[in-house]
Amino acid sequence: MIRKLLKAVGAEHDRALRRMLAVLVAGAVLQGIAFALLVPILKALFGSDPGSVWPWVYLLLGVTAAYSVAYYVSMRLGVDVGSALSKSLHQRLGDTVSTLPLGWFGAERVGQLGQLATKSVMDIMGVPAHLLRPLVTTVVTPLTVVLAMYLFDWRLAIALTVMVPLIVAVYRWSVTLSAKADAGRAESRSVTGGRVVEFAQLQPVLRVFGRGESDGLLDDALRTDHAASRRVLAATVPGLVGLSVAVQTTFTVVIVLGVYLVLDRGLEVATLLAVLVLAARFTEPIAELAILGSTLKSATGALDRVIALLDEPVLPEPLTPKELSGNEIRFEKVEFGYGDSSVLREVTFTIPEGTTTALVGPSGSGKTTIGRLIARFWDVNEGRILLGGVDIRSLAGADLMSRISVVFQDVYLFEDTIEENIRLGRPGATDTEVRAAADAARVTEIVDRLPDGWSTRVGEAGASLSGGERQRVSIARAILKNAPIVILDEATAALDPENEQAVQEALTTLTADRTVLVIAHRLHTVMRADQILFLDNGFIVEHGTHPELIASKGRYAGFWAQRDRARTWSLT
């Protein structure tokens, strides 16, 4: 655990933690010495000259005073290190999350990150403040006692030494027994956390369908979490019992051997009584380990999960970033897949600077993946993506993202005001620039009818606005960013006619004189594109303008005819 803790705290707090460990070890050794001094004190009291006990008493008082100082210092250091560790871990987690590939973030990560940033960090924070001292004591103090026993009776000392591997083996067995169950509980809690957030966010949908007070997925997650907690408890009990039995067996062996030595080998009764007291001091800290076992496992599991996130591979940044000289986008034999599933195969195309390219194709053909690869949500498996003639992997991440605006179909707004959600596109923008972007995206007409105007808070994820209104705020944000490359991913797919017209007008402003990639199912939105790429099963199977592709009577023409017929459908 200590090695994992040193890895988690990072170089910033490494020295403070090591200093605390040194003080803890010194305190544990002093405690062991204090226990050992009980032997000569008891031998003197039961011997022929009880007055000879005073030098040993004075020495015990000195060791006890030194131990008290070490204990006080370790407690102060534990609180300080624990507090600093909490702050450091949150910062390190935040820094790591900000450098992970954007494709890493999925719905299941909400619960995981929530658990890491709250419970896991709190569990780790408690290690230096509350757990390190008893952990070090349960290891160092008994070892000190065993070494001290060799000074008084080597035979009893050997008996204790022989029993140590048994105690260690039983403890390792108990840890192994419950580790898998504990990992399962952590996973179920992450899922449950995500389901709770989902349950809160989807209340409108659930209530419409009469499920406002019940959600099968959340209920299942809660039941799974309850079952996982029961498995942890069931796996922990045998370990606790086993360790207690091993400790008591050790003490029993020392008693039996001591009695034998007194009866047949001339061991003094006073020495035996003193050594038994010392043996009790040996077993007492180890017995505490059984009580600490569950807490230690939870803290160790939290450390493993935090370290796993800190070790997640980030998108590599170039040592010497290259400069861009244009905004042309070119794919060269790009291949990409999620895990073992291939999504794009030998994809090659060019989007000339200042032109609009439309991506069309059936669902699941890889259209959205192409848009996200341009924004470097992930790195390609094969081939390369060039921006202005430069491989995007050779560009600084901040430089790449400063040149791209993305408007997604599913818009997320922060729980802040409309103005601040727009300003996110360029935090340093003036109020005049924010208002101009809002005018261009037709957000001003939304603001004018709200009682708090620009100070209106949009609610969690923008819940107080309609889908079309959220989309207009998103487009205003993109207009304010003023990036030369725009990626539109199904930006009008789910809008009503009125909002779609407003959003289309805003998009016209956004895409003027820019390099644009449009991903759409509604084909009338791509008719005026400079080129259309038809994607199917990961391949570019057709490309050209709308009239050219219609005239060729290929896949695109069939796709267009099918969508055109769908416009005449009606319910009867």
H/I helix tally: 18
Instruction: Give the rounded overall mean pLDDT.
Output: 79
The biggest beta sheet reads: 6 strands, mixed
CATH topology of the largest domain: ABC transporter transmembrane region fold
Distance between the termini: 68 Å
Query: How many distinct domains?
Result: 2
Uncertain segments are none
Oligomer: single chain
Q: Could you say what the CATH architecture of the largest domain is? A: Up-down Bundle
Classified in CATH, the superfamily of the largest domain is: ABC transporter type 1, transmembrane domain
DSSP summary, beta strand count: 10
Task: Give a summary of the structure in a few sentences.
The chain has 572 residues and is an alpha/beta fold. It has helices at residues 2-9, 11-36, 38-46, 54-99, 109-149, 154-201, 203-208, 216-264, 269-310, 367-374, 397-402, 418-423, 431-440, 444-448, 467-481, 497-511, 546-552, 555-566; strands at residues 329-338, 341-351, 356-360, 382-387, 390-391, 404-407, 485-489, 515-519, 531-536, 539-544.
Blueprint (SSEs and pairs):
Blueprint: H1 2-9, H2 11-36, H3 38-46, H4 54-99, H5 109-149, H6 154-201, H7 203-208, H8 216-264, H9 269-310, E1 329-338, E2 341-351, E3 356-360, H10 367-374, E4 382-387, E5 390-391, H11 397-402, E6 404-407, H12 418-423, H13 431-440, H14 444-448, H15 467-481, E7 485-489, H16 497-511, E8 515-519, E9 531-536, E10 539-544, H17 546-552, H18 555-566
Parallel strand pairs: 3-8, 3-9, 6-7, 7-8
Antiparallel strand pairs: 1-2, 1-4, 4-5, 9-10
Helix pairs in contact: 1-9, 2-4, 2-5, 3-9, 4-5, 5-6, 5-9, 6-8, 6-9, 8-9, 13-15, 15-16, 17-18
